[in-house]
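FYI - complex with adenosine-5'-diphosphate, inputs then prediction.
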Amino acid sequence: MAGDGPGGRPAVPGVRDGRLGLEAPGLMRFFNTTGPVVAADHYCIPPLTRLDLDELLRLVRDKRYFVLHAPRQTGKTSALLALRDRLNADGYRCVYVNVEVAQTAREDVGQAMRAVLGRLASGARMTLGDEFMEGVYRDLAARYVPHEVLLEALARWAEADPKPLVLLIDEIDMLIGDSLLSVLRQLRTGYHQRPHGFPQSVVLCGVRDVRDYRIHSGSANAVIAGGSAFNVKAESLRLGDFSRDEVLALVGQHTAETGQAFTAEALETTWSRTLGQPWLVNALAYDACFRDKRGRDRSRPVDAGAVLASQERLILRRETHLGYLADTLREDRVQRVVEPLLSRAETRTFTGRDLEYVRDLGLVARDRPIRVANAIYAEVVSRELSALAPRADWS
Ligand SMILES: Nc1ncnc2c1ncn2[C@@H]1O[C@H](COP(=O)(O)OP(=O)(O)O)[C@@H](O)[C@H]1O
Ligand SMILES: [Mg+2]
């Protein structure tokens, strides 16, 4: 990854390993809990080491279109941004685009396409200094119907430069109904023109695998399977949680840069409560070392009690990600799966589809036995369920 120092450690000017008190305030790194990681500002595991990079590079070289998916707050965007930089260093023209803004266009395909084109134009300008899309997309949007304007714009953009074009499309599954269908179908239609007349490779990134999308088309008044709208997909790659070694390495960066130790028990607690869920690991460690007043004293080692106290504060504050997960319990299908898991009820009434959905949310582990993904999620879920439960004694 660009900017990495020897041994995969981010090269951060002015921050020296283990020299207590030497960090200049402006250069201090911290545990990031808001959005993608930036190696110069945040402790981080080099994002590309979390993916099967050889496989990814092979798929791009082989002109494949593929899916990268994982629950929220796993590191998808961090990984895509690092991949973009790597591909640009390797001689591709690679642009990252987040299409979330098109969600509010709902099934107004014209508005959604303009938003997607606008994001592409902006990404190309900012990353590559490439103004081609910016120069043509409004005119194309006036001349082509929404159902083909993306196809036409991508074809012209690919043709404009012999360097192979690669698109990383993030938050693809935020698009709704006909808008999502139209993006998938336009990509599929242009596919055979690649690499000279269409992007060489496209990565679709979101929470779910495209194959599992059930897209409600307002225009057809029917549910259409993602796999049929986008049958050119070669592979689906998943991003997992941190391994135990990665959790230790992440916390170890803080110890190396500030001199503040975590006791062996505190490290074990951080691992066992989170099982490596990337946001949770950062949120716990951030609270313990940066928010907690005593924890800010770098001469005090962080112990297991401090980590558990941080966990309690995170849950009580309903920090964004935890609040989002708690809110999903208002959906019947989520309750149907997790309620019997926590109450250890004998009878389970959920369907395979319900289970697949909560796994995509990250609430339930992907492997067997079926269980809530980690101890902190389990705690959040059980408190939320008791808050939601009807009270017979309230009159
Ligand atoms: N490589 C990494 N090293 C350390 N923490 C990470 C890394 N990638 C992600 N995280 C943690 O996960 C959070 C979400 O990262 P992001 O890339 O925005 O994930 P996603 O796109 O899957 O929601 C970050 O704020 C950080 O807490
Ligand atoms: Mg993201």
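Residues 109-128 form the longest helix (20 residues). Residues 321-388 form one domain.
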